Structures are given as C-alpha cells and as structure tokens.
Amino acid sequence: MALLGVVVFMEFEGVEKVTYQNTVDRTQLDQDKALQKDLLHQLAKIGTSRRWQDVESKRLIAEQLEEVKIRIQYGLKRFEAMEEKAETKAQQFRLFSLIFIGLSLLASSCIRPEEQENIKPVLKPVSKAFKNENEEEENQKPKQVYKSIDELGTKQRIALAVEHINKSKQCKFSYLMKEFRLSPKQVKEAKQLSNYEGKEEERRVIGF
C-alpha cells in the first residue's frame, strides 16, 4: 500500500500536465501574439509617411492592435486562473498522497506483529506433528539385522555388489568375487544390473 501511494504521488505531476494541456487551449493566444507581432511589423514599415493611404492603413492597424491586445490580456488572465486552479489541485493531491502513504505505513506497522503472532502458533504444532510422525515411523521400522556375507543368499550378495558398483563407480572382478563371494558369472550379472559403463578391469578373471 505504501508503494502504491509513492507511485501515485510521483505520477501525479505528469498526469496534471496532460490534464492542464487538454483543458486549456493555447492556440488562440498563440495566434493573437503572432498577429500582434505581424501588425507591429507592418506599422514599422509605414513609418511616418503622411500619404492618405498610409495614414488610413495606420488607423486600421492601430484598431486591430487594440483588439488583439484586449484578446491577449483576456487570454493571459484566463491562463493565470487555470494555472492557479491546477496548482491548487496539485497541492491538494500531494497532501492526499502524503496522508495516504502515512496511513499505509501505519497500517503496515500495525499488521506486521499480528501476522507474526498468527504464524507462530501454526508453525509449532505442525513441526511437532511432523516430528511425532517421523518418530513413529522410525519406531515402526523393523531394526535391520546384519548377517555375514556367507549367510546371505546369492541374490542378496549380487544386490550388494550392484550397490557397491553404483557407489564406487568401479567394477573390479577380483574384489567383487572375494568381497561378496561371487563367481565370475555372478559378477558379470551384477555389472549388467548396475548399468556400469566404465572400463572392465581384470577381465581375465571371467574366463576363470
């Protein structure tokens, strides 16, 4: 909420300018100023000539200049009023934005402790529940009884050999035969089950 207030506060200046430009049309004022400049230029060209045509032109130009001057003054007053109105709106909105940001920060500081209080009671029983479940599972698991290699069946010895190959990434026939009491054929079977793709070591034992 505080971030939203900051964004609104920062964007308002650009929005106000666009609104101001759309509300106040400067076209007529700019045209009047350009016409005033052109009439003054024409008047300067005539100078102090006393010819009848020039005197009449001066009179017409003077009348037009007076009309343009009145329109320009009216336009400037109108723009000043619009600018003052726009500035008043801008100040009001900035004040509103600051109040909004302050209330947002206050609300955030008030909500944060409540969230922490709501989270803590939930987490504790959940963690305890998981802990109790894990303890129950451990208690339910039958304790493993270790036997010597000689007491295990052929499939169990081959399975242990497969596990050893996968962990060590090695397949030494002599070691596997001696450690797991396997024949060369059984070692080859363990190698195939483990999908061992390394270089075969002590291949000469296979023909043994």
Describe it.
It is a single chain. The chain has 208 residues and is mainly alpha-helical. The protein folds into two domains: 2-138; 150-205, no CATH class. 79% of the residues lie in helices and 0% in strands. It has six helices and no strands. The protein has helices at 2-23, 27-46, 52-140, 154-168, 173-180, 184-193. α1 packs antiparallel against α3 and α4 packs across α6 (184-193). The longest helix has 89 residues, at 52-140. The radius of gyration is 48 Å and the shape is rod-shaped. The two termini are 80 Å apart. The relative contact order is 0.07.
Distance between the termini: 80 Å
Helical stretch tally: 6
Helix content bin: over 70%
Give the biggest beta sheet: none
- What is the string of SSEs from the N terminus onward? HHHHHH
Alpha-carbon Rg, integer: 48 Å
User: Strand pairing plus helix content: what structural class?
Assistant: mainly alpha
Q: Percent of residues in beta strands?
A: under 5%
Q: How many domain modules?
A: 2
Detail the poorly predicted runs: 121-126, 202-208
> What characteristic shape results from the CA principal axes?
rod-shaped
The tally of strands reads 0
Average per-residue pLDDT, rounded, comes to 72
From the structure above, extract its key features:
single chain, 208 residues, mainly alpha, 2 domains, 6 helices, rod-shaped
